[in-house]
Each structure stands twice: as structure tokens, then as C-alpha cells.
Amino acid sequence: MDLDTNQNSQCKEKNIDVGEQPVRVENTAILECLEVVMSEYKIERDKKQSFETRAGIIMALLGATCGIFFKTIKLNNIIHLFFIPLSFIDLIKILSVLFVYGGLIFTIIMVMKTIITKQHNNFNVICIKDELINQQRFESLRNITFAYREIILQHRDLNEKRASAFKNSLYGISTTLIAFIIFNFLN
Q1: Is 34 within 8 Å of 144 (Cβ atoms)?
Q2: Better-predicted residue by pLDDT, 26 or 99
């Protein structure tokens, strides 16, 4: 959902027929719904922060392991293996190096996808105008609740994408480490 269209949808009044009589807030569950929505909003924001923190830890681990990989695995020695008759061990060495570098690249891409995604929407404070303030309390609470519901759905969608990218980055770093262990074992 684009922020501009989101602002418009948040500001529009939802057309729900509540009858001729004004609805009394005390006779509805609107306050409880608003409380649940606000709690869910906070949870989704915390999830975003959690993914970014964990991705930062993976990036630090990548930085440390890259130094070790580049010191241990000399590309000149591996390229040299391409031009001599290969034994099975040499083939495994070449494959493990390819998996190390491929895993590093894949992990970096997935970590970046975890951190860099579409911006999370927020409640559009521009919507707080005289019309919203002058509405009956129930109508105002209902509109705010629906606006937050849409925001939460967008946050959940982005957090699911972050979770998938983060899981893939864990697979990538695991593949890299296993390939590096195999390479070191064969050397």
C-alpha cells in the first residue's frame, strides 16, 4: 500500500450504517477493539526492530568470518586447481570454495533484504482535523481503529517478507560455514 493512497484511505470515513440513534461507546466493544489494535501495532513495530537487530548480528558475524575466509582461502590456489588434472579431493575443494563464496553473497543479499524493505506506514496525523474531532466519539474511534487495522496488515506483510529473508540468510550463513569447514578439513 502506497503511503499516499494509505493517507487517503485513512482519512476517508467508512460507511457503516449504525442506525438512526447515536451509538453509545459504553454499549460497544470499540474501546477494547482499539486497545487490541494498538497492542498489535506495537507488536508489529517490535517485530520489525527485532529482525533488524538480528540481521545486524548476522552482518557482524559475516564481517568476522569474511576476514578468516579471505585469509584461509586463496583464490589463486583454487584457480590453479582448474588447470590441472583433478582428483576427487580437489573437486570437493573447488566446490566447497564455490559454496563458501556463493553462500557469502547469498547471505549478504538476504540480510540486506531483511534490513532494507518498504517503509512501514504510520497513522497519518494529517487526518486529525476538525471533522474527525467533531465526529461522535464512536465514529471517531471506529475510524481510528480501521485506520490502524490497515496499517497493521501492511506491517504484517512486510514482517513476513523480513522473516523469510532472515531465514534464508541463516541458511546461507550455515551453508557458508559448513563449506568452509569441509574446505579446511581437506587442506
Answers
A1: yes
A2: 99
Conformational region of residue 37, where left means phi above 0, alpha means psi within -120 to 50, and beta covers everything else: alpha
| CA atoms 74, 78, 79, 80: torsion sign | positive
Grid coordinates standing for 13?
A: 470515513
Q: Could you tell me if 102 and 126 are in contact, meaning their C-beta atoms sit under 8 angstroms apart?
A: no
Domain boundaries, the chain: 30-186
What is the rounded distance in angstroms from the CA atom of residue 148 to the CA atom of residue 154? 10
Give the per-residue pLDDT at 21.
63
Q: What does DSSP assign to residue 187? A: -
Q: Report pLDDT digits (tens) over 2-30.
A: 444 444 454 444 444 445 567 777 777 87
DSSP element (H, E) containing 33? helix 30-72
166: Cβ–Cβ under 8 A, 6 or more apart, which residues?
Answer: 51, 54, 55, 58, 110, 111, 114
- The cell for 45 is 513495530
Cα–Cα separations (whole angstroms), residue 28 to 138, 145, 160, 182: 9, 13, 32, 64
Is the pLDDT at 84 greater than 90? The verdict is no
Contact 127, 151 (CB under 8 A): no
Q: Residue type for 178, please? A: I
Better-scored residue on pLDDT, 105 or 90: 105
